[in-house]
Design goal:
The structure holds two protein chains of two kinds. Chain A is α/β, with parallel strands linked by helices. In chain A, the strands form two sheets. Chain A has a six-stranded mixed β-sheet with strand order 6-7-8-3-9-10, with helices on both faces. A four-stranded antiparallel β-sheet of chain A has the order 2-1-4-5, with helices on one face. In chain A, helix 3 (94-105) crosses helix 4, helix 3 (94-105) packs parallel to helix 5 (146-157) and helix 4 (121-130) packs across helix 5 (146-157). Helix content of chain A is 35%, strand content 24%. Chain A has a domain at 3-78 and 162-242: Rossmann fold (3-Layer(aba) Sandwich). Chain B has two domains: 3-122 and 133-278, ABC transporter involved in vitamin B12 uptake, BtuC (Orthogonal Bundle); 304-600, Orthogonal Bundle (ABC transporter involved in vitamin B12 uptake, BtuC), CATH 1.10.3470. Chain B contains 25 helices and four strands. Chain B has helices at 3-34, 41-59, 61-82, 92-114, 140-162, 164-174, 176-181, 186-208, 218-233, 238-257, 263-278, 304-320, 324-346, 357-372, 378-400, 405-425, 427-430, 448-471, 473-483, 485-489, 495-521, 531-544, 550-569, 573-587, 591-600; strands at residues 130-133, 136-139, 436-437, 523-524. In chain B, a hairpin with a 2-residue loop joins strand 1 (130-133) and strand 2 (136-139). The chains are: A alpha/beta, B mainly alpha. The interface between A and B is large, with 41 and 30 residues.
Chain lengths: 245, 602
């Protein structure tokens, strides 16, 4: 298992946002976490990625615990992350965004002597090529369309050659015709490079079209887990989502 | 300490807390609605003092208090309508600078209206006696002050919870956009809140009169105390301000009562550090939604050749003259280093430091102390003094990088004020208010041209080094942290470590400037590291433009020349500088660098 989560819990004040959640993700697998708003998906993600530390439970990445470890160290262990609302460096060009991630990967954040601009240009272009953004490397991030920003974020998230990719609503805000292309890209990556992918998504056609397994959260708890087909027909899930019994 | 002495110190603390609360509550209230940190709040307090002393002989002390409050409130309303209203959407830094310009203008106004001498006011009629408490005499007036704080706390609480005005204020504090969407008349509300805050400051000033004379130095002292209270209590929280005012005032009272008045500042510093580490938003504060400015792309003006050409020209100047121009140019070179070091924080790191003079001063005092007290050779002192600045920046920076935005700016200011007070009070080491004299360069550097060349070389090397750092992987990672801390952490950048290092580097170069300054002047005083010096540096950077490193170089040169010529020609030069700042904020928000870019891109 690349990622295994054991009895993870988190409360804010009196609200139990996540309760006793356990699941795992294997290499090459694409797992979706779904659930209505407020089900605890983003809280879960933020614990996996170190933005929050869990109240109890454990998160293991390839066998070692990462619960409560800060995000910048989790990244060094091989976890890439994209955010629900894209987070990129707005004053930089597309290529510079990727270069910044690459320089960090090669541990140059405290290198003073060299000029940063010329470093890892080819590698950055190769990453942009993979997400179909190579020809836009010179453009400023601040002027990109939202769908393109999502792709830049993906290229940035791949810069550390992750073994686990965490994607919080990867297609939110994208045009419908772009969504499938992005998901197909991720599926190919997962297969080809044995990458474990965990994503949340509101668009059910993306979930059932591309996930190899689905976990359903409701009020902070896992209420169902299984293959997409099984989830689609699960009575409890239908009740939560559609309100029919 | 006996029981009765303890009790008395405690009561003294309570009296101090009332006056701190009045000023901090106003500051907090204004911040809550308008998101503006009113640097001039201490100046409004000072105005309250002067107005009270001025009116008391005419109408009696007790009548002068509400009159002072009303006049100061009117003044606050004018400030809001005339200035602040235009800059609500400007970046925080510009807002802080604009209100600092008001500090300068109000100070010169008070100087013009009431003169430079401290003015002693009347004692409060009816409350001039003392009451025996636990076998000791305690002033009646202080008892009255003790009651005033809680009384205003209750009044403010009722105003905010029981009146329509209060509900609007709280709505605007919680969610400005929502309140305006619901049709709240923002303009009127903002003016009213600003006037109310100003009135509180005015009352605070007027009530302070029976205990201390009106003076021109009180403004910055009061406002940095208020900053500490608001940072500790939590921005925008009135109960927080009350609690923190009590805490800080009691600490002060006990340090003084125990006979360790020098420890007051250290104790204040430690309390602030502990609170900020445990609760970064203050005791009762909540995280503030960051109001982010537009992403203004950085740019590098292709300026290597012009800069080298300028360097060559500067190297030839001593052939033409060895007169005053050389002295002025040496000053310019020193302040170029200072401004460029601050630029690292303001520009790529996106951290507003309002206390950069602390590191400049540590460099200057380090140099002075090394040659005077330890008889170190000048060359060694010049090199070693910046290490003191480095140490200071590392200690303060460690605390500062835990905060961001406005909290960071206020903390840097409070920390710098602490350094200033230590230097000002520690007579035996720093020479107190007299400073240090007789810090001269080594013989081979003593002539004007020789020292000028030294400054030129050090300046060229420093600017070159900082230029390199900004363009290095380190500098770009720093920029990444500014653009998106969230994304930076998620690609393995330790944001705090990156920013901490930036603090240390910027502080070190400021120290280089300070040490060079000390030897060029021969004497230094606490003014070297005062808040106005920090603001000078900010103005230099903004005048030049914060988006490019060439900006601060130009800004420092222009500002130093301006200040030199203005302060020699004009009596009220501080107000003049204030006017320049206001002009800059209102008309030229991107500085000269921004103008150059506009022209070059045409």
């Amino acid at each position: 298992m690349v990622l295994s989560v054991e009895r993870l819990s988190k409360a804010y004040g009196g609200v139990q946002a996540v309760r006793d959640v356990s699941f795992s993700v294997a290499a090459g697998e694409m797992v979706a976490i779904i659930g209505p708003n407020g089900a605890g998906k983003t809280t879960c993600f933020n614990m996996l990625n170190g933005q929050l530390s869990p109240d109890s439970g454990d998160i293991r990445l390839g066998g070692s615990s990462i619960a409560g470890v800060p995000p910048h160290r989790i990244w060094r262990l091989g976890v890439g992350r994209t955010f629900q609302v894209t987070a990129t460096f707005g004053s930089m060009s597309v290529r510079e965004n990727v270069q910044t991630a690459l320089r960090s990967f090669y541990r140059e954040n405290f290198s003073f002597g060299r000029a940063a601009g010329a470093r890892y240009v080819e590698e950055a272009d190769a990453l942009l090529e993979r997400v179909g953004m190579r020809d836009q490397g010179e453009r400023a991030c601040a002027v990109l369309a939202y769908g393109d920003l999502k792709r830049v974020e993906l290229a940035v998230a791949l810069a550390n050659r992750p073994r686990l990719l965490l994607m919080d609503e990867p297609t939110a805000g994208m045009a419908p015709e772009e969504r499938g292309a992005l998901m197909q890209l991720v599926v190919d990556l997962a297969r080809r490079e044995r990458l474990a992918v965990l994503f949340t998504e509101h668009d059910m056609s993306m979930v059932f079209g591309y996930a190899s397994r689905v976990i359903v959260l409701h009020q902070g708890e896992v209420i169902a887990e299984g293959l997409p087909e099984a989830i689609r027909n699960d009575a409890r899930v239908r009740e939560v989502y559609l309100g029919d019994a | 300490m006996s029981g009765s002495a303890l009790l008395l110190q405690f009561l003294n603390g309570l009296a101090g807390a009332s006056s701190l609360f009045l000023i901090a509550a106003g500051l907090s209230l204004i911040f809550g609605v308008s998101r503006i940190v009113n640097f001039a709040h201490g100046s409004l307090f000072m105005l309250g003092m002067y107005v009270c002393v001025w009116l008391a002989p005419k109408v009696g002390y007790w009548a002068s208090v509400p009159l002072a409050a009303m006049l100061v409130a009117l003044c606050g309303a004018l400030i809001e309508v005339g200035l602040l209203r235009r800059i609500y959407k400007a970046p925080e830094l510009l807002q802080l600078l604009a209100t600092f310009a008001l500090v300068l203008v109000i100070k010169d106004f008070a100087l013009w209206a009431w003169g430079p001498e401290d003015l002693l006011g009347p004692r409060a009629p009816g409350l001039t006696g003392a009451v025996p408490i636990a076998g000791r005499q305690f002033p009646q007036y202080d008892l009255f002050l003790i009651a005033i704080g809680p009384a205003f706390f209750v009044l403010l609480h009722l105003l905010l919870t029981r009146t329509r005005f209060g509900i609007l204020v709280r709505a605007a504090t919680e969610d400005r956009e929502m309140a305006s969407a619901l049709g709240v008349n923002q303009r009127g509300l903002f003016t009213a809140v600003f006037a109310l805050g100003a009135a509180l400051a005015g009352i605070g000033g007027a009530l302070a009169i029976p205990r201390e004379p009106a003076n021109l130095e009180i403004d910055l002292a009061v406002v940095s105390d208020a900053f500490v209270v608001v940072v500790v209590g939590g921005m925008g929280s009135i109960p927080g301000a009350f609690l923190a005012a009590l805490l800080i005032a009691e600490i002060k009272a006990f340090c003084i009562g125990l006979g360790y008045s020098e420890l007051t500042l250290v104790a204040e510093f430690i309390v602030m550090a502990v609170v900020l580490i445990a609760r970064p938003w203050g005791l009762l504060g909540r995280p503030i939604a960051e109001l982010r400015g537009r992403d203004q792309a950085d740019f590098r003006l292709a300026a290597t050749k012009p800069m080298l050409a300028m360097l060559a020209v500067l190297a030839l100047v001593p052939i033409a003259t060895s007169g005053y121009a050389l002295v002025l140019l040496t000053d310019v070179l020193v302040f170029v280093i200072f401004a460029v070091s601050l630029h690292l924080l303001l520009g790529p790191a996106g951290m507003v430091s309002f206390g950069h003079a602390a590191y400049f001063g540590l460099g200057a005092y380090g140099a002075g102390l090394l040659v005077l007290r330890y008889e170190a050779p000048m060359e060694l002192a010049l090199l070693a003094a910046p290490l003191l600045a480095l140490t200071g920046a590392a200690v303060f920076g460690w605390l500062c990088v835990r905060l961001s935005g406005i909290y960071l700016a206020m903390l840097t200011l409070a920390l710098a004020q602490i350094v200033w007070s230590v230097v000002y009070q520690w007579d035996s080491v720093t020479g107190g208010s007299n400073g240090l004299v007789g810090i001269w360069p080594a013989e081979w550097l003593a002539s004007r041209p020789a020292y000028y060349f030294l400054a030129l070389v050090v300046c060229a090397l420093s600017v070159g080094a900082l230029w390199r750092i900004v363009g290095s992987p380190f500098g770009q990672a720093l920029r990444a942290c500014r653009d998106s801390p969230l994304r930076s952490e998620a690609i393995g950048i330790n944001v705090r470590a990156q920013q901490w290092a930036a603090f240390a580097i910027a502080g070190t170069f400021a120290g280089v400037a300070g040490s060079l300054y000390a030897f060029s002047k021969g004497s230094i005083s606490p003014e070297t590291l005062s808040v106005p010096r920090s603001v000078d540096a900010l103005v230099m950077v903004l005048l030049g433009g914060v988006q490019t490193l060439v900006g601060p170089v130009l800004g420092a040169a222009l500002f130093t020349w301006l200040e030199d010529s203005v302060s020699r020609e004009v009596a009220y030069w501080r107000a003049g500088i204030g006017a320049v700042i206001l002009l800059l904020v209102l008309a030229l928000p991107y500085g000269i660098g921004g103008l150059l870019r506009k022209w070059s891109s045409r």
